[in-house]
Write a structure and sequence with these properties.
Helix content is 36%, strand content 21%. By secondary structure, it is of the alpha/beta class. The longest helix is centred in the first third of the chain and has 29 residues.
Amino acid sequence: MVVFGLVMMWSVVASAAESGRAAAASADTAKPARMAIKAGKLLDVRTGNLASNIFIVIEAERVATVGSAVPTGVRVIDLSDYIVLPGLVDCHAHVLGNPKDESPTSGLRMSSPQSALWGVRNLQIWLSHGFTSLRDAGEDDLAYGQLALRDSVQRGLVTGPRIVSAGHFISVTGGHGDADVLAPDQALPRRPNLADTVDEVSRAVRGDIKYGADWIKLMATGGVLDPISDYRVQELSEEQMVRAVEVAHRAGKRVMAHAEGTAGIKAAVRAGVDSIEHGTVLDEEGAALMAERGTWLVPTLFTFQHGAEIGTSQGADEASAVKEREILKLQQPAFALALKHHLKIAYGVDADPEFVSKEFGALVRGGMTPLEAIQAATLRAAELLDKTNDLGEIASGKFADLIAVKGDPLSDITAMEQVVFVMKGGAVIKHAAVPDDK
């Protein structure tokens, strides 16, 4: 009877597997091998030129051709009333957890599985705003939920933007990346991302690499959204950051540095990091050094503007709210220096994904042209992430990541907040308020 039961169980499993394969084959057959998008206007993000009535032919997940010839024998999605652009890239995201809970202990009150489930929800929001790729700028999840989400998106288990991701925040004890904000008699066990010596940095970097991080995230200075650090103060030493860069680059990984204060920015740049995140107290010497070294800047302007606006309403500690108001006064002079020195700038929001498109307006108010702001989220972002073969523009051979917006973002950048169509890798994610397909 045991053998009979096992045989019957195997028969059921095999039958279910065969049914699944048949359904998948049917779905593949139903999905057109080729399709086309008719763009009323297509924005060339390199030049800013708008071409009318352009057909983008897609084969599987990539762009086959871009031109004015009307394709025959393929389904055409008609976006004649809209401007079509490449899918967007957010280079400073945090995908896990509840983005509306800014309390210092939010990460301590949520399990890793629950945080990852919030992440699934958050990824849908990024997609709905036209962000088909992102870089996760680190998490304090000991189980690396962000890497699980990255891999799940890649395998098709979860729908979301393509993800490259840092691991933990490598920080000093009591620094901006130290998740333990509890009283000394309630302290947490020491976490593996904390590094107070050069050798401990090596261990922390190798740990992130071991578990699959694409980038290494360093906390060069204190931060704003925590109650214990000072954003003006350098935390990791230059020697520690040199070692982190050495270990990461040897393993083929890139390094980003959270750096607010002036001294920490310059130390991180001298150490060889690939990108400075925030750079909010950048001075003339630091800007010149970044230009000389070719160091990227991801300025995240909107997050500080929004933070100062909402204050403690989402649970932020009063100490954080005070820092938010203080640092906001320093933001514009630093960004003006970045523009003056022609730094390489990529788009990143570092905020609730509900507001991910708001950074476009912040960049333009800060002094960029609308085209430069769009380039920061397309061409420049692809370059920072070393994904120029696949992302950043609509061209033959690149991923069929496309969006359509209402209005002309070159004349009114807020049009980037009116995304009505999203395609990722040839799959339609969002199709709202557009004419019937022809």
